């Protein structure tokens, strides 16, 4: 599994405070597994990671059937993709 570091905005739709869909990199994505909440300790574990944030890790699939694992985090105003794993 290769990791790509990214810092791009994403539109994230939630159901019961859990990610279910997103719009990212010009594509629609559907969350296709059970998302895992990422706490601050996860973000602070890697150098250069944002501090004091929370986020999610989940697999999402686009309409073409391509699936990736995404680490997303919430800032004060927006959601961002921190890493995408292929």
What features would you describe in this structure?
With 86 residues, the chain is mostly beta strands. It has one domain. Helix content is 7%, strand content 59%. Strands 1-2-3-5-6-7 form a six-stranded antiparallel beta barrel. The radius of gyration is 12 Å and the shape is globular. The model has no long low-confidence stretch (mean pLDDT 83).
- Secondary structure category: mainly beta
What are the low-pLDDT stretches, counting only 5+ consecutive residues below 50?
none
Radius of gyration: 12 Å
Total helical segments: 1
Largest sheet: 6 strands, antiparallel, barrel
Helix content: under 10%
- Order of helical and strand elements: EEEEHEEE
Per DSSP E runs of 2 or more residues, the count of β-strands stands at 7
Give the integer mean of the pLDDT values: 83
How much strand content do the residues show? over 45%
Oligomer designation: single chain
Per the principal axes of the C-alpha atoms, what is the gross shape? globular
Task: List the strand order in the largest sheet.
Answer: 1-2-3-5-6-7
In total, the number of domains comes to 1
Give the CA-CA distance, first to last residue: 6 Å
């Amino acid at each position: 599994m290769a990791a790509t570091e990214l810092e791009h905005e994403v539109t994230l739709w939630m159901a019961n405070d859990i990610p279910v869909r997103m719009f990212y990199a010009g594509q629609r994505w559907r969350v296709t597994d059970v998302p895992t909440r990422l706490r601050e300790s996860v973000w602070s574990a890697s150098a250069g990671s944002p501090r004091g944030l929370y986020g999610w890790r989940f697999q999402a699939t686009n309409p073409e059937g391509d699936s990736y694992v995404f680490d997303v985090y919430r800032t004060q105003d927006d959601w961002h993709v921190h890493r995408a794993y292929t």
